[in-house]
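Late entry, evening session. Most of the bench is empty. Finally got around to the prediction I had been postponing all week. Sequence below, unchanged from the version circulated by S.P.
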Amino acid sequence: MIKELTTYINTNTTLVLGTTLFAGEIPVKTDGLCVLIQETPGGDRNTNPYSKDVGTTLFHIITRGNAGAGYFTNRDLAYEVFDLLNAKTQVTLPVVDSTTYVVNIYCTPPGYAGRDERHRATHVSYISIIQQEV
């Protein structure tokens, strides 16, 4: 589902996949304002036969600023992604492989996580995606 989520963000924001938007990890040579979508442990599969929920998948959204860039530049980008995703219901994510995902998305507001070793501001948001039956 990480490919579908990243494609959805790419399609609905100013971020560009492979340049300012990444899935899994940020390439070492990338040194600009960017967003990383990372899968996290946890989540579950629903075994209730009467529920339309298939299961929950968890992600981090990590927004990293430029070296020396202001805190608010990074924060604004973090909120651009948060505003796109938070409290969305019955969203059909783009089909990347062959699976169609209809999901409900819930996020925590981006929180400041400090600066990295190159003095780039970092914000983190946590996402819970509940997959629905298709």
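Two things to note before I forget:
The chain has one domain: 2-132.
The radius of gyration is 15 Å.
Will write this up properly tomorrow.
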